[in-house]
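Please review the protein record below. Let me know how this chain folds according to its C-alpha cells.
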Amino acid sequence: MLDDPLNPPLTAENGARLEVTIRHTSSGIEARYLLLLDQPNRTLTQTEIRTFPDEQTAYVWIEGIAAARGFARYPILHEDEDGKPQ
C-alpha cells in the first residue's frame, strides 16, 4: 500500500502524538487512545474506546496500539468514574 501524502499514517515517525486515558467505571476499565497529527491547515485524528475487565488487559491493548504506531513513551491520564484525574 502506498502512503498518501494528504493522509499520512498517524505514527510517531510522522510526528503524531498519542494520548491515552484510563477510566475506572462501574462496567470495568475504559481505555481510550487519541492519535493526533497536526498539519498546516488541519489536524488528523483517530480515536477508539474499549472497556476491559481489568487494568492489565487495558494496558496490553494500549501497548499494542502504541507499539504498532512506533510510540515507546506516551502520557497516560488516569480518571475516576466521574472523569476526575486520579
Observations:
- Helices lie at 55-68.
- The chain has a mean pLDDT of 92.
